[in-house]
Amino acid sequence: MKNYKLLTPGPLTTTDTVKAEMLFDHCTWDDDYKQITQDIRKKLLKLAHASEETYTAVLMQGSGSFGVESVLTSVVGREDKVLIIANGAYGERMTQIADCAGINYATYKVHYNEVPSAQKVQEILASDPAITHVTMVHSETTSGILNDIESVAKVVKKAGRVFIVDAMSSFGGVDIQVEALGIDFIISSANKCIQGVPGFSFIICNREKLMESKGKARSLSLDLYGQWETMEKDGKWRFTSPTHVVLAFAKALEEMEAEGGIEARGARYRANNQLLIERMAQMGIKTYIDGTHQGPIITTFFYPENAEFSFSEMYEYIKERGYAIYPGKVTEAETFRIGNIGEIYEEDIVKLCDIFQEFLESQETAEQMNCAV
Ligand SMILES: *Cc1c(COP(=O)(O)O)cnc(C)c1O
Fold it and tell me: Of 9-18, 144-153, 326-335, where does mean pLDDT reach its minimum?
């Protein structure tokens, strides 16, 4: 099998040293292992700028969606109602979770290339006092848009509602002042900006709000409070923990510190992202999201005008040469996506853009030859 780097929003390219941690079969019940879990929980609070008095971190088996489902089904009680703000597939997935679990909800849907308005959220909350919780996505990976959680947090807090944020693809790559913003539950996973491998999600919870959720869970294995209660004692996971993934994640956190934390990592991602967008623009390839709202994680590009090639032709050409890109996910236009998080540096972006240019040129030549016949 030929090796390639992932230009996708997770799983993403990790370092060899992170992968090497998984060569060890760790015992789950001894103190060494439990301590690793406790250290991870502490470090996550630090990254979130959340104090140990007010916040606590819970690790949950499964991919990111399991974490989102855990929060929604554990903290939104049978008498409660959640406002789901959606401007992409991940926001819409929350409505599917609510449908499955029979959670009472309202939606505020926004077009995929627009950010939700705090003003509008304020109006919805004023007009519907039954709403107890509000949830939204920070970096909508569907399009690459970065939503303004700061201004929404303000109106949600002012209205006295619980605020839940899916920061799956941004946490660790974009600095989030969780405590200062008053975010009550924020969710991310091992295989995004912390640069670990897939296998668990994590939730940073306001302790008081988590305590209030006791007994509300609609699922046994995804019970957030239940998971916390066991883990809080000494770091033991309630059910089998993904040991190899946890070891890799602990290493990924160390490497993140060595890089210079969120600040340095965020700067690298932004530089990758800007270079990518500039180089694509030089080739006439435009972004789906405008410059003000484009996030630094992943970018949706329109197909070049009059393009005759399919995504899979382009994908195979680029993959042969060392990089895997991502199909588009917006519904109204032909697009493709390129992620720039993970162990990706300027040289990778330069290489990718050179390959892309070669591909476009090879297509033009092919067309000319067709015309000549
Ligand atoms: C990756 C991601 C998720 C979780 O997706 P999984 O496939 O379950 O890991 C949720 N929300 C956003 C915004 C994401 O980027």
Answer: 326-335
